[in-house]
Description:
The protein has one domain: Cupin (Jelly Rolls), CATH 2.60.120.650. Helices cover 22% and strands 30% of the residues. It is built from seven helices and 13 strands. The longest helix is centred in the last third of the chain and has 19 residues, at 208-226.
Amino acid sequence: MFRGLAANWPAVKHWTFTGLAGLAPDMPVQLVSGDRERGSTKFVESTLRLYLESLQEGAGRENQSLYLKEFDLLDAMPRLRLDLMHSEIFPPRSIRSLQSWIGPAGARTGLHHDYLDNLAVQVVGRKRFHLVRPGTVERLGAVAAKYDSWARLSRIGALELAAQVAPQGDFLAVDLEPGDVLYIPARWWHEVLNLTPCILFGGFYGPPAQVLARWAWVRSRDLLHHAGWLGLNDCTCHPGN
Length: 241
Ligand SMILES: [Zn+2]
């Protein structure tokens, strides 16, 4: 955890939901409804501008479980790139992806682990990360069968799992404030809860050979999934599952 490492980024200093909503195009976006890691997979259609407006201070709370995840905000609003300084924090010559998680207070991502290292930058709002040491969910027999292209999911949340075992330092929790950067190594399990409306940029990264090998592995599994040979009727990408 690097407290305040990004505190001087223009995005951290200046972005507000009201300001972003005023600049956002009316492009369609797909919102995830509820905790699809543990519950069923459901999507709701909106537009980027309407969704950002709904997150403004004083807006109604009816969208509490609608979450814009893994969203390419910089593709939708390229000028925002000037406000971010990711090249300062990623290792040189690494391949990296940059996606945003935008959502209201109470929105959550269920316990899962990724296959690549990740640097998460908290830009707006406060967010709680529960982290669980690699191997813990596996040892407790809680790995879910549910298919996700880029992650492995847990059937049971971090707090429920922690209650099942004697605490041995396998469970950590940390709250991110605007400007904080969290390094989440590959295979560390994490569950994430918005304490306030939030914008976070997450980036997978790694040496080119490692990232390309993982990408090819993900793509081939995804082809099997879309052909109906893997994770049929139990996945985070097809609604109703
Ligand atoms: Zn699917």
